[in-house]
Design a protein that fits this description.
The structure is a single chain. By secondary structure, the protein is of the alpha/beta class. It has six helices and seven strands; from the N terminus they run βββααβαβααββα. β6 and β7 form a beta hairpin. The protein is globular, with a radius of gyration of 17 Å. 38% of the residues are buried. This is Peroxiredoxin like 2C.
Length: 225
């Protein structure tokens, strides 16, 4: 069991990055931006957090092997872990592809919770998420990525070539991030990825959201080819 952790008020800095204060992340600026579900139905972004606490994870693109493997681990979170509190925690993944790719990506990863897309990247851009990659020696890669770089990229290319609709399913240079917020527009925690491996560990996000249970996401050691 993990103890409750007080909300972090600054983004974690890795390498030579300057931490970002939460006051820089204004959900009021994006609350009316539209996101789309798997059927192409739109709703305002604020609907995802205004009535309760939400963990909102922005991914790069649906062909990215690191995003696929991260979402595969998100899919392993038991529903009762998210609903142990009276109000519960809402888990949301947002991509930046067209909505027609959501169904296939959920099927591929086994992800059972909410997923939407921001195909024009309005929310990504207005919140200040990066559109380039920065790698540092001190940064720790995502513990949820199992594939090495070469093998992972080959898997991504193969999925692109064998998919029913060939497109890149989002901007290949766009980075993602994670936000904990709600109820309302108060941001309790944020992290903007510096590169494709810079995901926040899922257990950390859950604990910051108030979950006291630690889940096992252990994987074999990654061999980078």
């Amino acid at each position: 069991m993990a103890a409750l952790i007080s909300p972090i008020t600054r983004q974690i800095a890795k390498g030579h990055r300057e931490p970002q204060t939460l006051s820089d992340v204004r959900l009021e600026d994006v609350q009316d931006c539209l996101v789309f579900d798997r059927h192409g139905v739109s709703l305002p972004f604020k609907n995802l957090y205004q009535h309760g606490k939400s963990v909102i994870i922005f991914v790069r693109n649906f062909l990215c092997y690191t995003c696929k493997e991260y979402v595969e681990d998100l899919s392993k979170i038991p529903e009762d872990v998210l609903k142990f509190q009276d109000a519960g925690i809402r888990l949301v993944v947002i991509g930046q592809s067209l909505h027609r790719h959501i169904e296939a990506f959920c099927s591929l990863t086994g992800y059972p919770y909410e997923m939407y897309v921001d195909p024009d990247r309005y929310i990504y851009q207005k919140l200040g998420m990066r559109r380039e990659e920065t790698f540092t020696d001190s940064a720790q890669p995502s513990p949820h990525v199992k594939s090495g770089v070469f093998a992972g990229q080959m898997k991504s290319i193969w999925r692109a070539m064998t998919g029913p609709i060939f497109d890149f399913q989002g901007d290949l240079h766009q980075q993602g991030g994670a936000i904990i917020t709600g109820p309302g527009a108060q941001v309790l925690f944020c992290h903007f990825d510096t590169n494709r491996l810079d995901h926040m560990p899922i257990n950390w996000l859950l604990q910051l959201a108030g979950v006291q249970q630690t889940l096992d996401f252990s994987r074999p050691k990654i061999i980078h080819v």
